[in-house]
Amino acid sequence: MECFSGFEFVPQHGENCCSRQLSRQISDNRMTRGVVNVFEQELDKSKALKFVLLMGIVSLFADMTHEGARSITGPFLSSLGASAANVGIIAGLGEFVGYGVRLFSGKLSDKTGQYWLITIWGYIINLVAVPLLALADNWMAAAVLMVLERMGRAIRNPARDVMLSNVAKHIGRGWAFGMHEALDQVGAMTGPLLVAGIMYLRGDYRLSFAWLAFPMLLCLLTLAYARLTYPKPYVVFEQRDESSQKLSAKFWLYLAATSLVAVGYTDFPLVAYHFGVTSSVPAVGIPIFYSVSMGVAALSALIFGRYFDRNGLSVLAFATVLSAFFAPCVFGVNIYLAFAGMIFWGIGMGAHESIMRAAIAEMVPMDHRGFAYGLFNSIYGFAWFLGSAGMGYLYDLSVGMLIVFSVAVQLVSVPLFIIVGKMR
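Above: the chain sequence. Below: its structure as tokens.
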């Protein structure tokens, strides 16, 4: 038999240790909602914090790699002879695969319990595809690598989030996911800046992709260190009654609310398109505005994550109201309003990306959490796709209609978040 010590299983000869621990855990860990914790590792806060920071650094280097690449894949495909239609289809297919696969990878992680294995393979597929773009000699080969990059991201995310959610309860899930998202956004900001610098100095797409091998290697080395240091950050065995075997009504209502936010949240390419065609923001200022919004998102993730631990989902309702103001600002013709709008846009991105993941961990038991994260990401991504397509159509009809649609759909989610926050 085995007992738990820290993050690891520690084998013990004989049954004295485990029989004493088992009886103590059963008597001491009776939980409400029909859940009994039979085993749960004792993690001190410093170990939990270190694990969250390590995985945040992994995400920082990962985002430097794939977001740096995404900033130039469009013109790179064009240089290889791809048409605008080809670029659109490749991007759409990548996003479809990137969100659709998460449902299956999340279910697989729950069924097998191989959270680390799935996470590591996902990162390898996600990252190795990027520097290989430097070797692509036609747009079809590049397209395959781009889709593989999104597939790898889809494979790793649910399993990684399960591990984070389990460790995060020791320091506050909102704070933990906030720190993780903040580091993620730092990578998303610095990757494109690195590529922009290489393009400015050398003007070579292939060299830019090749240079991204360095953050890729740093990411995989950090991931390997995290795996060796914390081999089992997910070891919790829960015995539930049958009522907990299905996702709760609270989860489904929460999923509906977050999907409304996704439908109403304008993707940045459309915002950048508006800046360009109206000249409300100079071309050189568009990436600067985006970088500023990513910095705001990082700060927002930390602040709202901390407040989520104290006040629950009411914080998400407040963040949604605040971020809804981005549309009237960015879709005007005034550069100062556009800058303010990007601040609001960044606030919403940071708050949503951190709190939305943290909230799922509060609603779903451990061995269903991979599926829950996969389902959430799949539906959220599909809702985002529908909203982006719909608002692109509305933009051609009337910018005013787009603004009204964006604000209204987001605000409809607010009372749903409040209701979910009051549900048990």
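The two ends are 36 Å apart (CA to CA).
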